[in-house]
Each structure stands twice: as C-alpha cells, then as structure tokens.
Design brief:
The chain has about 525 residues and is an alpha/beta fold. It contains 14 helices and 21 strands. α4 packs parallel to α5 and α10 runs parallel beside α13. The protein is elongated and about 80 Å long. The N terminus and C terminus are likely disordered.
Length: about 525
C-alpha cells in the first residue's frame, strides 16, 4: 500500500510592491525581475541593479542573473537580480527557468518575485507557472525524499489590479498542471484504471464538476468491442471515466475532451523491447491532462460546458489478450483487423469518440501519447495537431502559443488512409511506418462523424526522459487557454451568460491529491 504523506500547500499572493517596499519584505529569497529599459530609483535594490548593469555583471537579457547574500539594506537573505528581457510571458518563463534550482533549496520556504518595471498580465501568469514548475517535487512513492519546501510565493507588481485576473488564471493553471504531473508520474501499480477513476471522483468535490465511472459490464452494454479487446489481457478491470463541468446553460453545447488512459502499455502480444519500457507508465498522460484540465476548471469556473471522457485500461500479454490478426467490432459497428497490438491507443479512443457524439458537442479534442512517429517528426518541442476543422485548429494553435505549450498542425490528406485497407475487416489498425502519426489520426477520423474534431499527439511532449525524467503536465496549459478563449467567444456572441470567478489576491492550491 502507498503511505499517505501530508499534502504540501502552495500559497500564491499578488501584492502591490515597488522596489522600495520589496527591500523590506522578510523572505528567504527575493527575485527582482529587471526588464530592458529599466529605470532605477533611489532605493537600495534599484541602486544594486543599476550598478550591476553599468559594470556588466548583469544584463537585462532574459535569464542572466546575479546572486547576492545579505545585501545591505535588504531584509531578504538571498537576492537574485534577474534579467527579464521584454517582460513577455516567454521571457519571464525563460528567466525564472534559469534559476530553477534556487526555488528547490531546502532553506527557501518563502519567496518574493518582484517586477522592477510595469508587469504585463501574461508575464505575471507565466511567473506563477514558472515558479511552481521550478519548485515541483514528486514524492508520493519516495517516503524518504524531501517534499517541496517552498510554501508561499509573493508576486510583487507596481499595479496589482490590471493583472489580477491573469494572476488567478496562472494559479488555476498550476493546480491543473500539477494534478496532471502527479498522476502521470505515479508508477503503474499506483495509477491503475481503478485508482485513476478514484482521482476523477475526487474532482467531484470541486464546484460544478460531476463524475460518473462505467465498469466492464456497462462498457460491454455500450458495445465498445475495440476498447474491451485491449483490456482483455489484464487482470485490472477497465474503467470508462466520464467527467462533466457545467459552467453554462444546459442548452449550450459542450466541448468534449477525450484522454487516452493506458495506465501501462507492454505492447500486448506485439510486446515492446525491455529498454525504457518503464516509461510506458506515461501512456496515460492524455488521461492525466484531462484530469488536470478539470482541476483547473474547478479553480477558474469559466462560463462553459465541458465533458471529459477517459478510457482507462492496461495493455498486457496473457492468454486472453487480443492477438495480431484478430478482428474486433467497434461501438460504431465498423470492424477492425488488429495487425499490431501495440497500436492499442487508437482502439480505445475510437469507441470513446463514437460515444462522444451523444453529447452533441461543439467540438471534440482527443489527447493521446499515440505514436513514436510524432516524436520523430516534432521532437519534444511541439505536440502534433490534427483537425478536420480549420477554425478549431486555429483556436488550438493560438491557445498553445499563448500558453507557451506549443503544437504544430499536421496534414490529414485522404491519401494517407490508403494503408489502412484490410482484406478481412473494414480497416486495419496500422498502416506501416511511413507517416505513422498521420495514418493513426486518419484511423481516428473514421469514428468522428460530422462534429469539429482535433487530435493532439503528445507522445513527444507529455514526459521527459533522462536525468529529469518525469511528466510535464502538457498540454493542460494549451487546453485551458483554448477553453477560456472558447468561453469568452461564446459569451461575446450572447450564447452563454458569463460567470466570473472571484479573484482574491491570495490563491492556494493543493499540489497533490490527498
């Protein structure tokens, strides 16, 4: 059993704080963001920054920094003068990432991040997210590890009111991203389909969120033959998780998010090589991102309806497992020849895409660690974006740019579907190596129907390998920005009545489920 550790709480404060007052703030770490064109005053921090800039020991370029200890006339023990570039979200994120290790020092429990110039709203949101990302520690299955020690962060700005909403959005995003990272990082024996369903149920305590979980019997009655085929080889029972966030009128069409929830992927009978197979615990990061989005929605309370659907199961090779060459019948009635059991993500997604139609959605977005081919095409910088609707594709792409959670639109020409032809079923589940991420998307497209649909292949962006191995929480930022933009657009056209959340100066979130 997993020993429950006390859940750390991260508190964020937004405070009107000029450099004169910042010098008197009692904290373990004071970070001063020095922008291009910085105009120093007569206070101690301004004098320090001005001298450092004049002598060349500090530059305003994002990420350059100078660390000081027990600086004269400054209450903070540690001071970091940090170049903030042009103050944009990208520059602020880049700057704070450059001193990421500082936020993990065990002596740093309270930090102040102060903008030395006028703060841009997106820069404030980026500062909140960057500090949370830098201080994040996974400790659920590491009982002897040190948990996050940083528990309070003050964001200091010259004028608080213009950036208050952006600050609240940043805090909400952090809550969602860290929820997604937590479940993405958990080992497969601590993130089974049933435990993933429990995590979804815990979100039901958030305002306007409801959760329903379907077991094997209900999924069988729905006729989800492709989903059930993948789960056959595992002793862990499958779960179909259904989340609803109701922030608008019942008549308003929801956006449906579908997250691939393969909690561990051996490849099935088409078994994977042993090297790095441990990373297949991350094959449920699409599901984790949907959970993270709902965690953020619970914080932000936008005027929109959202449905989250997560098909959760393991892909294991035992005597009951689906075999290469087997033909299964999907919920749509289309038959599929399973040529490769390691192409299982599309099999669980296709049935849930069919199920999504019953919600009469405004749009459907599925999120999946679907293909290694997408990693080859785009690496770890951008997620692959496929869409049957130009307006939806443009909105998602713009949201990714705004969130610094980038994606890149890939083609969906019908010619790519030629390889899916089968002599024994309506289609095969693979179409060869060439254009593998595209042919996987073409497979999914056959189960979409007429509604606007997009597919995000996050195989390259959902987690990192190597020394910094772990879940990234992507694309929670992209999806939340898209949903907030969708809500604003619907409100502007009079489709729904906007409901604004309260935006206090202090916000806190629980960084891990209790």
């Amino acid at each position: 059993t997993l020993a429950r550790r006390k859940t750390p709480i991260m508190n964020f404060d937004l405070k009107t704080l000029e450099l004169t007052a910042a010098a008197t703030e009692k904290c373990d770490l004071l970070v001063v963001l020095v922008p291009e064109g910085f105009r120093p005053g007569q206070d101690a921090l301004s004098v320090l920054a001005a001298h450092a800039l004049k002598c060349g020991d500090l530059k305003a370029k994002a990420g350059t920094h100078l660390q000081l200890y027990l600086a004269p006339a400054v209450s903070a023990r540690r001071v970091v003068l940090l170049g903030a570039g042009n103050g944009s979200a990208r520059a602020i994120r880049q700057a704070l990432q450059a001193i990421a290790t500082t936020f993990k020092l065990p002596q740093v429990k309270r930090a102040v991040v102060c903008f030395a110039g006028e703060a841009q709203p997106d820069g404030v949101s980026a500062a909140v997210q960057a500090v949370a990302d830098a201080s994040y520690v996974y400790a659920t299955t590491k009982p002897k590890a040190e948990a996050r020690t940083l528990n309070r962060v003050v964001i200091g700005v010259v004028h608080a009111e213009p950036v208050r909403e952006a600050f609240a959005h940043g805090v909400g995003l952090v809550a969602g991203v860290e929820f997604a990272r937590e479940w993405g990082n958990r080992p497969a024996n601590h993130a089974t389909p049933s435990l993933l369903a429990d995590a979804a149920k815990s979100l039901g305590s958030q305002p306007r969120i409801q959760c329903k979980v379907h077991g094997p019997a209900e999924v069988a009655r729905l006729g989800m033959g492709a989903f059930m085929a993948v789960a056959r080889g595992s002793e862990e029972p499958l779960r179909l998780i259904e989340l609803r966030y109701s922030g608008a009128s019942k008549s308003d069409a929801p956006v449906v998010l579908v997250g691939k929830g393969i909690t561990f992927d051996t490849g099935g009978i088409s078994i994977k090589p042993a090297a790095e197979m441990d990373e297949m615990k991350f094959d449920m990061c699409g599901a984790a991102s949907v959970l993270g989005v709902f965690r953020a929605l619970g914080e932000l309370q936008p005027a929109i309806n959202v449905v989250g659907l997560i098909p959760a199961c393991e892909n294991m090779p035992d005597g009951r497992a689906v075999k290469p060459g087997d033909v299964v019948t999907s919920m749509s009635g289309q038959t599929i020849e399973v040529l490769n059991t390691d192409a299982e993500g599309r099999l669980v997604l296709c049935d849930v895409l069919t199920y999504a139609a019953r919600f009469k959605p405004a749009a459907v977005v599925d999120i999946a660690t679907l293909t290694g081919a997408c990693v080859i095409a785009l690496g770890s910088v951008r997620s692959g974006l496929f869409a049957n609707n130009d307006v939806l594709a443009a909105a998602l792409s713009a949201a990714g740019d705004e969130a610094q959670d980038l994606c890149w639109r890939m083609p969906l020409d019908e010619d790519y579907a030629e390889g899916l032809k089968s002599n024994f079923a309506d289609m095969g589940n693979v179409a060869g190596r060439a254009g593998g991420s595209i042919t996987a998307a073409k497979f999914l497209q056959r189960f979409v129907g007429e509604f606007p649909w997009a597919h995000l292949d996050i195989a390259g962006t959902a987690w990192k390998s190597g020394a910094g191995k772990g879940s990234t929480g992507r694309p929670v930022g992209l999806l939340v920005h898209y949903l907030l933009g969708h809500a604003q657009q619907r409100s502007a056209t009079g489709t729904v009545k906007a409901v604004k959340p309260a935006l206090p100066s202090r916000r806190k979130f629980q960084s891990k489920p209790a």
